[in-house]
Structure formats: structure tokens, C-alpha cells
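Re: folding output
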Amino acid sequence: MKRHRFALATVALCASVSTASLATDQLQSDNPLRTGMNKAVDRAATAYFANACHAGVSVAVVTPEGERVYDYGVANRKTGAPTKADSVYEIASVTKSFTATLAAFAVHEGKMTLDGDFRRYLDGPYPNLAIDGHPITLGTLLTHRSGMPRDIPKSDAIFAEKDPRTLPGKLLALNQGRGEKDFLRDLHHTTLQSKPGDEERYSNAGFMLIGVGLERVYHAPYATLLDQRILSPLGMASTTLRLSPALAAKRVTGYDMFGKPAPAHPDNAGAAWGLWSTAADLARFVRWQLDESNPAIALSHRPLVHGSDEDVAMAWHVAKVNDAPMISHGGGSFGTSSQVVLFPHAKRGYALLANDTCKGTEGALKRLAMDVEQANDSP
């Protein structure tokens, strides 16, 4: 049975959520508060919900002893339905960590190389995907340093407007009815924004292109590769690019930063940000990612670009916390936010799913995981 308590803070960080509604909202939780881990999660979740813009969150905690999902808040504000371990969320750009793992398999199996000309994995010539003799590579695509635009078709003008109220509708309209054939047609006319390897430029299009390359070298659709290499072996039956009616019935309502229900990602988000999943399913993915005896997993975590604060591996961000690596990847859609945070040295990891895109939610989810991990590392 779920425990109820009043939220500790009613300060709205989202302008359109009324103070009156925040004052009466209750924070629901299935945390039994029996163990040190239970209590560490509860403290971190309480701090997270100090921002009353947040709606709900599901937190999967993976330790050497097992897995547990903790649920807080609501899956739907109108009905008050609670979040659950099998609540279905968009995981947005956490999808890129799945694509990167498939790419790591391809490198390990000799199907691809990190530094070679990526155009060899495409059908037909793409002279436009090189500058001054420097072509795009798998390594530059994985680290957002290929020079590829953010999206194909280009979405720069929409993002330049900086209007979160209109952005979802315009992006959905831009991608309406588009598929891989449209992507590849437009790819021929794409201009790189910088020389591959020179600059970091976030690119969903780059990960869509990795998906295309994987299809060519394995002679199978991306969805099939995903199922054969990750989802089926791990028993992730609730992770998919297309929701079945049964999974759609478990879908949370995502909320934008103004507290309004938000639409889902475009149907063609695919290898870049198109996956749906549950905290229970992602616990299996986290357990798998913690096993660096798997050569493909270890390869995907190996830094390719070194920075002052963190390194970038095959999509993953690698930082040091107390002299030990913390490996993470976040995501955000129109109404959901996500994080996967791994601490391989401790064999502990976290998957965190939220049904809002309040200001800073992705970072707050990462902080929640770090706070729990710090509590478990404390003597």
C-alpha cells in the first residue's frame, strides 16, 4: 500500500502551476522505509520534490544484492494515479545509450571501426559528409563531434525561437509522415556545420545515421537489432519503439514546464530518442551495463574525448566522483525526463524516469542518484 505525506515545499518553480494546487498536492510513495537504502532514497526524493513543479518519478536502484523500484508522485495529475514500477515513460535520449551499445557490438565484432570513414557503411556516395578530407566517423558521431546538424530536416529555426510553448507542435509538424527514406534523401543535401572532430554539436541526426549504418552492416532493421542484441536477451519486454495497446494503457502523462500535458516524441525519433520503457525494465539494462567483463560494454564506456570536467565515451558521459568513475546519460522529451547513472566500481546503478520537463529536471534526477550513492558510500 502506498504511503502518503504532504509535500515539504510548495514553492512553484514552474510559473503556470498555481500555488493553491501545489499546497494541496500530496506526495505518494511505495517506499517501505525499512532499510538504509529505503531511507536514502526517501531523503533524496524529498529533496527532489521540493520543486513542486515535478509530477512523478520512478527510481530503479540496482545493487549487488538485487533491484528495487521506488515510485513517488503521480502518473497523471488529473486522476491522481500513482507511478508504478511498470509505468511506461518515454526515455528520450537515453535511447542513445542503447544505440551506442549496438555500435560497440559492431566495433567488437569487426563490423565497424571508430576512426574509419563512416560513409563506407552507407549506400551511395555522400561527398557532403566530409570537410577538407576529414569524413564523419563512428567516433565523431557517438561523441556529437561529427559536424552533423541537430536534426534532419533542420530544426535550428524552431529552437532559435526559444518558445517552449510552440516548440513541440512545430517539431512534430516538421517530422510528420517522415521515415528513413526521407532522412537518407535529405542527407544527400546536408551541410556539415563544422569539420568532423573539431567541435561538439549535439546531433540527433548523427545517432539516426548510426542506426542506418548498423542496419547496413548487419542487414537487419534497427528495431530487430535492438530486440535481438539487447531487449530479448535481457527480458526487457516493456521496452519498445512502438507501444502496444497493453503498454499504452500504462503510459504516464508527461507534463511540460508549465504543468500542461505534453505530446509524445515524433514517430521517427528512432535510434536517437524514440524508445519507451519502464523503471523495472531499465533495472535490467543497468545491471547489464554494470558488467564490464562484457567486452562490448567495456568498450562503450571507454572515453573517446577527454574534457576538463568529464570525458565522453560511446554516447556515455564519464566523470570522477571520489576518484571513481560515474557513467551517465540523460534524456528529455516534450513531457518526460530520464537518467541512467552507473557506478561500476561499486556495482551499483540507477535508472530514473520522470513525467515532467520542468527546468533542470534532468540534472535533478542525476543529483538524486548521486545523493543516494553518496549515502551508501558513507561509513
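--- second protein (sequence, then structure) ---
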Amino acid sequence: MPSLSDLQDEYSFLDADDRYRLLIDLGRDLEPMPEALKTEATLVRGCSASVWVYPMVRDDGTLHFLADSNAAITKGIIALVLQTVQDQAPAPILATSIDDELAPFDLKNQLSSNRTQGIPNMIALIRQTAERYAA
């Protein structure tokens, strides 16, 4: 997957339709999440589409997230959110302002409120997971 900076550069040159396509492509590139992990426990509340996020701790202490959605654009948004924190230790995740990292994408103005309403809940889940493993 391209770096967040590369994605920002590409995104800034695209028109609205191509931005949707880019998000859909990002979602397609997400690591597959096994169906068995898509449970009530991994379901992110407050999203208009179904979104599942499953955190894992790697042997080196970094956090790796599996995620999926039943909506293509929402899945792309998840991929973008994860790009800011994937495979990092809990402390750097907690030091990262995910909102600030995503600000250049201007998702709230680019997408409908239905598509973006769950982003704060995804971010909260990631931060809660990092807090749990930082202790």
C-alpha cells in the first residue's frame, strides 16, 4: 500500500469520482478479514454500514488491525484510517492525531455524512486498543 503522503498527493489531484475510485481501490487492497472474526464483538458501533475491526498484537509489540465493511467506500475509509497507525507500537499510535493525519483528505466535505459518521468511532476503537496495550 502506498504511504499516506503519496495517497494525499494523488488524492489532491483527483476529481470527486476518481476520489471515490481511489477509496474503493484502497478498500480492495485491505488484508482479508476472516468471516469468523466478523462478530458483534468486532462490530464498530455508529457506522451506517457494517464495519468490523479486529486488533492483533504482533510478537514485536506492534498492533495490526484486520478490518472490513459491507460497503466499498466505507472499506476504503477504513483502509485510509488504518494507514495512519498500522503495525505501530501503542505509544506512537497514541501520539498520532489520526484526525490531523486524515485532514488533508477532507473526508467530511468530500463524502456524505452517512459515510463519515463512523470515523470517530473507528478512531476511538483504535485508540482504546492502543491504550489497553500501552499499559
